[in-house]
Structures are given as structure tokens and as C-alpha cells.
Design the sequence.
């Protein structure tokens, strides 16, 4: 007997969905039958990218993808987004906290603004989305937030990023307890190096050194992360909560 993940009738909100891992998650959840809400911060090309992705998905299934412009670091903006999704979709079933930024610099050289900007988006943004997302999430739903291998390895120059990702992983453990009475599960995914535009900025010599730590001898694909997120939101993971799943090709160095 085959096993199929069918999310027909479910609504998934994906933050930072205009490109990279977020866009792949949108495609993956959509392929499983879910209606997807594509969040973007309305910076640079994110609006155009999100609208292009929504058009692609709506061409496959009408009214199955919605675009919502929101700065997750802004409390009022997140509240407005959730109210809009409540009105438009009746609420949400899955919250995928994917939005994040980088401002790499050593602690000695990091400005206070660089520290705060990363915390505001990567950690406070997840808190905002969880706090107000739970208000419109149907019972039995699931939250998946993006942690990182950086939270474990403590990469040079990533004090702000690593701190936020450690915080996100801890936050999911707390929410897994607090939301359990409603049957809502909360987990995080800690990816290794994934082939995205962000990873493309890593110098070749650094990439070569990183590769030495990966038993599977490749960097991850966005599909590798999206498939794990889909599993965590599916009935197959009904007894999985408060966990951090490492998706890193076996990196233990």
C-alpha cells in the first residue's frame, strides 16, 4: 500500500516565501494539495518574485496561492497579516517560519544595528508569527521554524545569526508544550549548507572546507528541507513535537 501526504483543505503560511527554501516549501505544500499564503517583506524584488510564484501555482489550481506583504519584525504588520488570512482563508493550519536575514561580522566589529536587525527578523519575527498565528490556527495544526547548523557549530562571524537560531529552536520546544492541549505541534529544522542565493556568497575556499565535514559529500538542495517540513506537518509526524531535525548531510565536524 502506498503512503500519500494529502493536505487538501489545509492552509499553510510560509514566511520569506519569495525565493530559496521558502519558495520551494510553497511549491511542495501546494503539490500536496494545500492552499499556500506566500509572505514577503516587500523589499527589493521580493514582491515581484512572490507574485510570480503565486501566478505559477494559481495556474495549476485556481485561488490556491495568496501573497501577503509583511515585515515579520513589525508586530502590527504581523497582526494585520493574520487577520487578513483569517478573513480570506478562515485561518491557517500550518505556520512555516522561514524568513531570516544575515549580517555577518565578528563580535568586535559588529554594530549594534547589525545585532538588532538580525534579532528583530530571525527571532522576534518568529515570536510574532507564533503568537498571533496561534490565534488564527486551527486545532491540530503544526508550526515548523527554521533553525540552523549555525546554532550548533557557532560559525565565525555569526554571533547574531547563531544566537537567533538557537533561540528559535528553544522557542519551538516551549511552544510544543504550550500548544499541545490544542493538538498543535511545534518543531524546528536545522539545515546545513543549502544551495541558495545566500549560500552562493560563501567563498569557494570556505565551501571546500565545509564539504570536508559532510559525509554525503554534497550541499543540500531546497527540496531536502522542504520535504522534511512537509513530513513534520503531515499525519506521519503526529507524535513528533518539540524536536529539532538536522538536515545537513551528516555534518558532525
Sequence:
Amino acid at each position: 500500500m502506498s503512503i500519500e501526504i494529502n493536505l487538501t483543505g489545509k492552509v499553510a503560511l510560509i514566511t520569506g516565501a519569495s525565493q530559496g527554501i521558502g519558495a520551494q516549501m510553497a511549491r511542495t505544500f501546494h503539490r500536496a494539495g494545500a492552499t499556500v499564503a506566500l509572505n514577503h517583506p516587500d523589499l527589493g524584488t521580493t514582491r515581484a518574485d512572490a507574485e510570480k510564484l503565486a501566478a505559477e501555482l494559481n495556474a495549476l489550481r485556481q485561488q490556491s496561492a495568496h501573497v501577503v506583504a509583511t515585515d515579520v519584525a513589525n508586530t502590527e504588520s504581523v497582526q494585520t497579516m493574520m487577520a487578513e488570512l483569517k478573513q480570506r482563508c478562515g485561518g491557517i493550519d500550518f505556520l512555516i517560519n522561514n524568513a531570516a536575514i544575515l549580517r555577518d561580522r565578528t563580535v568586535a566589529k559588529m554594530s549594534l544595528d547589525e545585532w538588532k536587525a538580525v534579532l528583530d527578523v530571525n527571532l522576534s519575527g518568529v515570536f510574532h508569527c507564533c503568537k498571533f498565528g496561534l490565534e488564527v490556527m486551527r486545532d491540530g495544526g503544526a508550526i515548523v521554524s527554521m533553525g540552523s547548523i549555525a546554532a550548533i557549530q557557532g560559525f565565525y562571524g555569526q554571533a547574531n545569526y547563531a544566537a537567533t537560531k538557537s533561540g528559535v529552536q528553544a522557542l519551538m520546544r516551549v511552544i510544543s508544550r504550550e500548544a499541545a492541549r490544542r493538538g498543535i505541534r511545534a518543531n524546528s529544522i536545522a539545515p546545513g549548507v543549502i544551495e541558495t542565493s545566500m549560500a552562493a556568497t560563501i567563498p569557494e575556499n570556505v565551501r571546500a572546507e565545509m564539504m570536508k565535514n559532510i559525509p554525503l559529500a554534497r550541499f543540500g538542495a531546497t527540496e531536502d528541507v522542504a520535504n522534511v517540513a512537509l513530513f513534520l506537518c503531515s499525519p506521519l509526524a503526529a507524535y513528533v513535537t518539540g524536536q529539532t531535525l538536522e538536515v545537513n548531510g551528516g555534518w558532525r565536524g
About this structure: The longest strand covers residues 137-146. Helices lie at 20-31, 46-60, 75-89, 112-136, 150-153, 159-178, 204-211, 222-233. The radius of gyration is 17 Å.
